[in-house]
Design brief:
Strand content: under 5%
Distance between the termini: 15 Å
Shape: elongated
Largest sheet: 2 strands, antiparallel
Number of helices: 2
Number of strands: 2
Helix content: 40-55%
Radius of gyration: 16 Å
């Protein structure tokens, strides 16, 4: 996931977690003003959301029998990967 599907995206979903938490807690300065423990937890949840989205992209590629995604070969069609 990290090599083929997560990089190249905008990562908006993951970054929005810390912003949403800061807005919910009314933290001055937004996500940058979160306490370290809250920032870590928000970032961890953000990465989980990005991985879930990457899984959805892989599932979509498999269902559609896609050859490329974002101009590169799909992860399961990479010639150097042996399954």
């Amino acid at each position: 996931m990290l090599d083929f599907n997560v990089p190249g995206g905008k990562l908006n979903r993951g970054m929005a977690v810390a912003d949403a938490l800061a807005a919910h807690k009314q933290v001055p300065g937004g996500a940058a003003g979160l306490p370290p423990a809250d920032k870590w937890a928000a970032d961890a949840l953000g990465w989980c959301i990005e991985w879930l989205q990457a899984f959805f992209l892989v599932a979509d590629d498999i269902m559609d029998n896609s050859v490329t995604r974002r101009g590169a070969p799909c992860w399961y069609r990479m010639p150097h990967v042996s399954w």
